[in-house]
Amino acid sequence: MAHSAPRYPLATQIPGDVLDAEVAELVRLRRQPPVRRLAGYLRLGGPGFMNAALTLGAGTLTATMLAGATFGYRLMWLTWVSMGLGVFMMMAAARFACLGGFAVVDMQNRYHGWIVGSGLTALVGTVFVAVAFNFGQYSLGTHLLESLTPFFGFAFPRQVNWVLYLGLTSWLILTYGRLAGRGARLVEGVMKAGIAIMLVCFGVCLAVVGVNWSEALHGLVVPWLPPGGPGLDLFIAASAAAVGVMDWVLLNYAGLTRGWGRHHESLARFDVTVGLFIPFVLVNLMVGGVFAATLFEQGQPPETAPELAAALAPLLGETWAPIVFYVGFLAVPVTTTVGMSIAAAMALHAAMGWQPDTSSWRWRASALLPQVGFLAVWYPNPIQLIIVIGAFLSLTNNVVGWSFFLLLNDRRVLGADRSRSYLWNLGILLQITLLNGVAVLYIFNRLGWWI
Amino acid sequence: MIDFERQIGPWSVRVWGLILNFMGNALALYGAAGVLRNGSRWPILIIGLLLTVGCVLILAIPTPDPTDTDRNDG
Q1: pLDDT for A210-237, tens place per residue?
Q2: pTM of the predicted model, to two decimals?
Q3: Cα(A440)–Cα(A446) distance, integer angstroms
Q4: pLDDT at A237
Q5: What whole-number distance in Å separates Cα of residue A176 and Cα of residue A319?
Q6: Is residue B35 less than 8 Å (CB to CB) from chain A?
Q7: CB-based contact (8 Å) between A414 and chain B?
Q8: Rg (chain B; Cα; Å)
Q9: Residue pLDDT, tens place only, A274-285
Q10: What is the maximum alpha-carbon separation in chain A?
Q11: Under an 8 A CB cutoff, do B4 and A409 touch?
Q12: What distances in angstroms separate CA B62 from CA A93, B25, B65, one per listed residue?
C-alpha cells in the first residue's frame, strides 16, 4: 500500500507489515484528541530526537557555556532564533524523505552537481565534520568520566577510560539499522533517554544556582552581537551549531531508514518540533543560564569545556549537584558521537554511491571512522580547535542551504509536492540569510573589517 | 509573474536571486560595521538591507504551476 516505491536500503530490513501497521496507526492517531495524538507521536517519533542529541554536542555546549560565562544572558536570543529558523530547513529534509522518497545527496548530485552534493553536503558538511568534531566529544567525555569517578571513591583517568567510551558508543553505532529495523528504534530510544537526562540534570543545576529573570528575559528577546575577534568567532560557532548541514542530512536519511512515507509527514513535523526544537532550546538555555549565573559573575572564565565544568562544579555547592551536572553533561558527547558516526556512514555511502548495508565491513568502517577521535585524549585543547573549525564550516553551510531551498521549490524534483507555502519559503530564506551573514561575518572577522 | 525556473546563463532566476541576496547580506554587514565603528557607511547599510529584504520577499514566492501533472521522475 503506502510503500510501493523503492525503499532506502536500510529500511528494507523492516518487514512490510510492520510499516503498514505504523501507517495505519498514524492514520488512526490523526483522528484522536491532541493528548493521545501527542503520546502516540512521542512513541513513534525518533529521527528528530536523534538530531537533537546529535546537535547538542561538545561544540554546541562549549559555545553555550562560553557564551554564558563570557557574556552572561546577552546571547540567549541566538538559541531560539537560530534553531527556530533551522526548523524550516529540517522540514524540507523531512519533505524530501516523506513525500519525495529520495536521499537528498543523490538529488543534489543530479541537479546541482557533485561538488554541492557529494562534496560540500556529504563529504565536507557531514563526514569531515563528524571526524573533526568527534575529537571534541572524546575530549569532553573522557574528561567528564575522569572528573565524575572520584565522587564514587575511585580514579578512572582519561588515558584509560576512553576504552569504555569507545566500546559503548561503537556498540550503539553498529546497532543502528540492524535487528530487522529494531536497531534504529533502539538507538533512537537511547537518544531520547540521553535528552531526558540532560533536561533533568541541567534543570536541577539551574534550580540550584538560580536565575536573574530580568536579565535572562532581556537576553532572550533583545538581539546583541559581541565585538570582534574571539567573541565573534564564538557567536559564529554558536549560530552554526544549530543549523549544520549534518543535521539536515541525518534527518533525511534517518527518516528514510525508518521507512517514512507520505503518511509520516505530520509525524516528521512533530518530531522536528518536539524532538529537536524544544529540547535544543531548553538545554542550551539551561546550560547558558547556569554559567551566566555563576562564572560570568566571577569574571575571567576558563576557555575549555572540561575547565569550565571543573570551575563550575564547586559553585554548585553540595556534592550531589556536581554529580548531577557531570552525569547530564556526559550524555552530551555520548549521544553526539553516536549520531555523528551514523550520519557520517550514511553520507560517505551517499557520496561514493555505495549501497548502505549495515552488515558489511564497508559500513562498519565508515561508521567507526569518526572514532579516531579517541586520539583527543592526548591532545591538550581540541574544543578550541572545534570552535575554529565550526566557524570555518559556516562558509559551506549557506551553499548547501541554497541547494535545499532550490530542491524544495523545483518542479522536476518534487512535482506537486514542492513547497506551496510562502511562509515556509520565507522561513528557509531567513535561515539562508542568517547562514550567509554568518559566513560573511567569518570572512570580515578574518580580514579585520568587523568592529 | 516571475518565472523562477527560467534559465539565464548557467543558472535559473531563483539561483541568481540567491546570489543577489548574498551580495545584499554582505553589503548590509559591511555597512553595519562602518556604522557601528564610526557612524559611516549608512548608504551602504541601507542599500544592503533593501536588497536583502527585497530578495527574501520575492524569492519566497512558490513556483507557480499551470498543470501540476509533472511528478517527480526520480
Answers
A1: 888 999 999 999 888 776 666 666 676 6
A2: 0.88
A3: 10
A4: 67
A5: 37
A6: no
A7: yes
A8: 17
A9: 999 999 999 999
A10: 63
A11: yes
A12: 17, 22, 9
CA distances to B45, B46, B50 from B41, rounded to whole Å, are 6, 9, 14
Rounded Cα distance between A70 and A295, Å, is 8
Distance in angstroms (rounded) separating the CA atoms of residues B8 and B22: 18
Report the amino acid identity of residue A386. Answer: I
Domain coordinates in residue numbering, chain A: 9-447
Q: How far is residue A297's CA from residue A313's CA, in Å, rounded to a whole number?
A: 15
C-alpha cell at A95: 519533505
Q: Predicted confidence band at A322 (pLDDT cuts at 50, 70, 90)? A: confident
Give the per-residue pLDDT at A12.
78
- Chain A contacts of B15, Cβ < 8 Å? 402, 406
Question: Locate cell 558489511: which residue?
Answer: A360
Measured in whole angstroms, the distance separating CA A146 from the mean position of its chain's CA atoms is 25
- Euclidean distance between CA atoms A245 and A263, whole angstroms: 25
Question: Is the CB of residue A432 less than 8 Å away from at least one CB of chain B?
Answer: yes
Contact A349, A22 (CB under 8 A): no
Q: According to the model, what pLDDT value does residue A11 have?
A: 80
Q: What fold is seen in the domain A9-447?
A: Hydantoin permease (1.10.4160)
Work out whether strand B7-8 and strand B11-12 pair parallel, antiparallel, or are unpaired: antiparallel
CB < 8 Å to A430, chain B: 56
DSSP H helices in A277-418: 278-293, 295-298, 305-312, 320-352, 361-368, 382-408, 411-414
The helix (H) or strand (E) run that includes residue B12 is strand B11-12
Given a cut of 60, is residue A141 above it in pLDDT?
yes
How far apart (Å, rounded) are the C-alpha atoms in residues A374 and A165? Answer: 9
Q: What's the whole-number mean pLDDT along residues A125-140? A: 90
Q: Look at residue A1 in the predicted model and tell me its pLDDT.
A: 38
Average pLDDT per block of 10 residues along chain B, 74 residues long: 87 95 94 87 95 97 70 45
Are A413 and A119 in contact by the 8 Å Cβ rule? The answer is no
Asked whether this complex has an ipTM greater than 0.95, the answer is no
CB of A63 closer than 8 Å to CB of A234 = yes
Rounded CA-CA distance B63/B74 in Å is 19
Dist. CA A26–CA A270, nearest whole Å: 12
